[in-house]
Amino acid sequence: MPLVRIDIPADTPPQTIRHVADLVHKAMVGALNIPIADRFQTISRRMRDELVCTEDFLGITHTQAIVLIQITLAPRPTELKKALFSAIASEIEHHTPFKAQDVIINLIEAPRENWSFGNGIAQFA
Amino acid sequence: MPLVRIDIPADTPPQTIRHVADLVHKAMVGALNIPIADRFQTISRRMRDELVCTEDFLGITHTQAIVLIQITLAPRPTELKKALFSAIASEIEHHTPFKAQDVIINLIEAPRENWSFGNGIAQFA
Amino acid sequence: MPLVRIDIPADTPPQTIRHVADLVHKAMVGALNIPIADRFQTISRRMRDELVCTEDFLGITHTQAIVLIQITLAPRPTELKKALFSAIASEIEHHTPFKAQDVIINLIEAPRENWSFGNGIAQFA
Predict the structure, then answer these.
(1) Which of A74, A83, C31, C104 has the greatest number of C-beta atoms within 10 Å?
(2) Which DSSP symbol is given to A121?
(3) Chain B within 8 Å of A43 (Cβ-Cβ)?
(4) Could you tell me how many CB contacts below 8 A there are between chain B and chain C?
(5) Domains in chain B and their CATH numbers?
(6) What is the pTM of this model?
(7) How high is the ipTM of this complex?
(8) Residue A1, exposed/middle/buried by CB under 10 A (0-12, 13-18, 19+)?
C-alpha cells in the first residue's frame, strides 16, 4: 500500500539507484511487515540544482549525495515509524555508497480507504 | 482545488498522456462535482526504472504500462472516494490503451485552508 | 522540517529557478520562524504539457508561467498558513518575473514524528 517517492542525484549509477529502491522496499517489508508484493515506487533523478538540502541541520552534516524518501502509507504507531527510519538508513548505509546521515525521510499518512490498486476499486475500504 | 500528480511511462505518446490527464479531470468533475475550471495537474514522464510496480498484488496483475495517480484534495466521504476511483479507472480503460488494472490511485486529504490558488491568499480559509 | 516541492516551467532560466527556491525558503523562515538551516527542496522542471493549470479559477487568471509549490510540514495554525501563502507570493512577485497570481501553493501537514533528517533517527519523535 505504501507509495514511495525517491529523489536521488541524477549522476547516481542506475544499478545503485535500483539497489536503493530495493533496499527501501526490503526495509519496509522488515519494519512494517508489509507483503513483499506490496511495492509501488517512483524514482526522480535530480540534477544538482534540483535537490536542495541544508549542509548542516540538527548537528547532522550533509554531502551533495542525498537520498530523499517520501512515503505515503497507512497510519502506523510511532514505534514502527522509528523502526522504519532506522531500517531504511541502515540498509542504505551498509549496502550502497550513500551515508546514513544523507538519508532524509518523510512520512505522509493516509487511511486505507484512500487507495486503489487497480480496477477502480478501493481494495481496503 | 485538487492537485493531481500523474506518473506515466516516458514512452507514452504525448497525445495519450494528454488524454489521460483530460480523463482524470473529467472523472473528478463527474465524481466529485468539482468545477471544470478547478484543474491543477503535474505529469511525470518516467523511464522504465523510475516507475516500480509490483507484478501482482491482491490478485491484480500489472503490466509495465502503469498509470500512477496521486491526488491531494479536500476531505471527502468514503463513498465519493470510491466513486472517484471507479470513474478514473473506467475512463482510462475505455478511452486509452491503458488497462483498468494498471491504474493505481492514492489520495491525500488536506483541509481547504491549506490551498492558495494565486495572489498569496487562502481562498477557502 | 518542511519538505518543499517546486514545479516550474522547464524553460525558466536556472538562476531564476534558484531565486524562486531561495525566496520560498526566505518566506518560510520569515512566516513560520523555522531555522535557516531547515531547508529541504526538490525542483521539478516541467515541459509545457507536464504542468497543467486552469486558465481562470476563482476569478484569478493564469498565464503559462506557473509556479506550483507543495509543502509537507508539521501542523500550523491557520493564521500562520495564511501568512506563509502571502509571504511566498509576495517574495516571488517582487523579485522574479513570475506573477503573484501564478503562484499556486498546497500544504500537507504531517506530525513531527514523521521525519528523519539523517542517521535513521526520528529527531522530533
Answers:
(1) C104
(2) -
(3) yes
(4) 103
(5) 3-114 (3.30.429.10)
(6) 0.98
(7) 0.97
(8) buried
